[in-house]
Amino acid sequence: MSAFEKPQIISHIQKGLNYTVFDCKWVPCSAKFVTMGNFARGTGVIQLYEIQHGDLKLLREIEKAKPIKCGTFGATSLQQRYLATGDFAGNLHIWNLEAPETPVYSVKGHKEIINTIDGVGGLGIGEGAPEIVTGSRDGTVKVWDPRQKDDPVANMEPVQGENKRDCWTVAFGNAYNQEERVVCAGYDNGDIKLFDLRNMSLRWETNIKNGVCSLEFDRKDISMNKLVATSLEGKFHVFDMRTQHPTKGFASVSEKAHKSTVWQVRHLPQNRELFLTAGGTGSLHLWKYEYPIQRSKKDSEGVEMGVAGSVSLLQNVTLSTQPISSLDWSPDKRGLCVCSSFDQMVRVLIVTKLHKI
Amino acid sequence: MTTKDYPSLWGFGTTKTFKIPVEHLDFKYIEKCADVKHLEKILCVLRSGEEGYYPELTEFCEKRLKGLAPGSRALRKDKPAATASSFTAEEWEKIDGDIKSWVSEIKNEENKIHFHEMETFPATEGNLPPVRGSNGRLHVSKEKYSNSRPTKKKIPRDYAEWDKFDVEKECSKIDEDYKEKAVVNNKSHLSKIERRIDTAGLTEKEKIFLATREKEKGNEAFNSGDYEEAVMYYTRSLSVLPTVAAYNNRAQAELKLQNWNSAFQDCEKVLELEPGNLKALLRRATTYKHQNKLQEALEDLKKVLNVEPDNELAKKTSLEVERDLKNSKPASKTQTKGKRMVLEDVENSEDEGGKDSRGKHEDGSGGKSKTSFLFWLC
Questions:
Q1: What are the residues whose beta carbons fall under 8 Å from the beta carbon of B19, sequence distance 6 or more?
Q2: Where does the record place the region Disordered (chain B) (predicted)?
Q3: Alpha carbon distance B152, B144 (integer Å)
Q4: Which of A129, A200, A356 sits opposite B155 (nearest CB)?
Q5: Count of CB atoms within 10 A of residue B330's CB?
Q6: Is residue B153 a part of any domain in this protein?
Q7: Does residue B27 form part of some domain?
Q8: Which residues from A are below 8 Å from B210, CB to CB?
Q9: Measured between CB atoms, which of A147, A201, A318 is closest to B165?
Q10: Is A129–B158 a contact, with Cβ atoms under 8 angstroms apart?
Q11: What range does the domain containing A29 cover?
């Protein structure tokens, strides 16, 4: 039994909740995390838990009018640690968890549910202004600066009359200096669009045939390196984002996993080549990306094009019979992870031996 | 074997799924079969139980497949998460203790941050760039980048506008103000990363945090072969907080780039901060070797071998240097051509902080993030 050289995924603490939980996030620089969701009576809830003596202690419960779908600490400072959330009614709120009665920022950002949110420029991750991006069922993707009230600083929406697609996932990336920044958005029809915020242009788009459930850059704060996109039909794609070919775009490798929807992908903050995917059957898969010997080559016309690497499965476990709705690595402790699932459970996981990979 | 042993097995010639001849569901056949795809199918049929339930044969087939293709998807099984009982008592104690001590550590740290809250808050606000698209205070902050910010365009409102995106026009436009191309240059980002990080108003803790993160970025870049980028991030890390680990890692990246002099300088810095650091001695020996200072190289290598007589790299390098010395009709290099495998390591966060150079150097147990084999042109 002890000859485990592979990383092991340990279910360290689990706790049943009395509401549907959609998202969970570690509070930076702490042993606390927040869960966000929906009470059966139709209201929204944010709970703050802390690990204490190998158990979870509920520190705070905040009830709000609308169910809360998603949240991020990505645009806040380490000192403030304000939580930005998106709710079923399309509201973007920023909360001070110490004084959550009224939001410190509030805007009716979208006409319909905010499915997804991401932040950059806070926590010392990503240079430049703190910004939040939201993606909604109303088809739009909007970028917000908490210093500007009421209006987004960028808005990406389809032309009037054109079919609007449900945006399921957004991710910031490429924030390696003060000017550069991209937003990547995934839609229910399999579209992936990469928006360059510096030039305000659509830099790249592709379609992976199935709804895009989750997108994440391996790191937000370096020149874009890799992007993982997971899909409804049990596949995920890893794009090498360093080399863009004028017609072929970015090279990618795809892999089947979970035998069902891959709901989430999250890269290990301490090692960008490792990532966890979470599946519709309650399973977690830990992957490693390996680079090819040459990351780019010249095509027949001498134009540089990327070469994709390969992914290998390091470990997989099944935690639940229900889909895992969210997943978050602790930014402070390597291998510590929290996940929520639709059986109304939240679990703290430990993944061992990650430093040896 | 069991009652589930359907007559179909004998009645029909092939299995229902995949149409595999039934004879293939057999120890002898599986033992000889080397076709991974076919074995996967056989395994799938065996597991489904549609041709009957044969636990031993299934296991045998799994083993065979594992031998041929350890990475095969068919071998992935649903497993429950590990628990305390999956480990030996000592292992579990270590894992559990590690988390417990981290929890108490981070709580302390968190309390300290709260204590500092009032003081640090204004400083962070002041450094921020202006709100995107707000023309107002573009020049308020005095940072030099504010001038190079792109002219604020109207925000595109819809996809149609992006469809109208005229590549050529856009190219020429971009060419005017930046030497950037529509096709992304692989290395162009390097010149646009700030080499220094502004640390005004940061607490010591925050500096450590920042320096560690930049160093980790450097390590990741190093491990993916982007040595220039690695040097950049180590430089950023050093600009926040000079550490032995970051200097040492930058030296290694400089060696990769064959910047012998820069590597030498970094080794010197390490040895200044921590005399007798083995990695730095070893790396400095390499720079000496390539600059044909063979005597100096030998001295460094001797120091390493005194502490670590079994250090493979040191042994190998000193053999080479000695041979070079013998051959040296002054500075005539008759080194082995081709590529040489070299053991190297990049230190991770556990390794920093100038603990004395540990004994176990190359066996990967000394808190190494990575011990990798890479090619190194001699």
A1: none
A2: 318-373
A3: 17
A4: A200
A5: 5
A6: no
A7: yes
A8: 124
A9: A201
A10: no
A11: 8-352
pTM, entire model = 0.78
Within 8 A of A197 by CB-CB distance, chain B residues are 132
- As to burial, measured by CB atoms within 10 angstroms (0-12 exposed, 13-18 middle, 19+ buried), residue B338 is exposed
Which helix (H) or strand (E) segment is B306 a member of? Answer: helix B294-307
Q: Is A310 on the interface with B (CB under 8 A)?
A: no
Write the CB contacts of B105 (distance below 8 Å, at least 6 apart in sequence).
Answer: none
For residue B63, what are the contacts with CB-CB under 8 A and spacing of at least 6? Answer: none
Residues in chain A: 357
Report the chain A residue with the minimal C-alpha distance to residue B166: A201
Would A3 be classed as within a structural domain?
Answer: no
Determine which of B114, B117, B183, B184 to mutate to test the interface with A (most A C-beta atoms within 10 Å).
B184
Determine which of A245-254, B139-148, B311-320, B357-366 has the lowest per-residue pLDDT on average: B139-148
Inter-chain residue contact B78 with A273, CB threshold 8 Å: no
Residue numbers of A between 7 and 66 with CB closer than 8 Å to B: 8-12, 29-31, 51-52, 54
> Of the candidates A266, A221, A276, A217, which has an alpha carbon nearest to the alpha carbon of residue A241?
A217
Q: Is residue B110 included in any domain, yes or no?
A: no
User: Which of B100, B120, B128 is nearest residue A129 as measured by Cβ atoms?
Assistant: B128
* CB of B48 closer than 8 Å to CB of A253: no
Do the domain assignments include residue A246? yes
Contact A73, A119 (CB under 8 A): yes
Best A176, A189, A241, A290 residue to mutate vs chain B (most B CBs within 10 Å): A176
User: B 291-350 residues with CB below 8 A of A?
Assistant: 348, 350
Check: CB of residue A56 under 8 Å from CB of residue A43. no
Q: Are A208 and A192 within 8 A, CB to CB?
A: yes
A13: tokens are: 């603490």
Q: How many domains does chain A have?
A: 1
**A12 has which bridge partners?**
none
Q: Least CA distance to B364: which residue of chain A?
A: A356
Q: Is residue B174 part of a domain?
A: no
Range of the domain at B50: 22-75
- For residue A57, give how far its alpha carbon lies from the nearest alpha carbon of chain B (Å): 13
First-to-last alpha carbon distance for chain B, in angstroms, is 64
B148 at interface of A, judged by CB pairs closer than 8 A:
yes
Cβ distance B148 to A131 less than 8 Å, yes or no, reads no
Q: Which member of B157, B223, B367 has the closest CB to residue A155?
A: B157
ipTM score assigned to the predicted complex: 0.86
Q: What is the pLDDT of residue B345?
A: 56
Tens-binned pLDDT, residue by residue, of chain A (357 aa): 334 578 989 999 999 999 999 999 999 889 999 999 999 999 999 999 999 988 999 999 999 999 999 999 999 888 889 999 999 999 999 999 999 999 999 999 999 999 999 999 877 777 788 999 999 999 999 999 999 888 899 898 887 777 888 999 999 999 888 888 999 999 999 999 999 988 888 899 999 999 999 999 999 988 899 999 999 988 999 999 988 888 889 999 999 887 788 999 999 998 899 999 998 889 999 999 999 988 888 888 888 888 999 998 898 899 988 999 999 999 989 999 999 999 999 999 999 988 877
Residue A175 at interface with chain B, using a CB cutoff of 8 Å: no
Instruction: Report the domain count for chain B.
Output: 1
DSSP 8-state assignment for residue B131: P
Contacts of A80 in chain B (CB under 8 A): 121
- Say yes or no: B217 contacts chain A, CB-CB below 8 A: yes
Q: How confident is the model at residue B169 (pLDDT cuts 50, 70, 90)?
A: low
DSSP letter at A150?
S
Across the interface, whether the CB atoms of A179 and B145 are under 8 A apart is answered yes
Is A233 in the B-facing interface, judged by CB distances under 8 Å? no
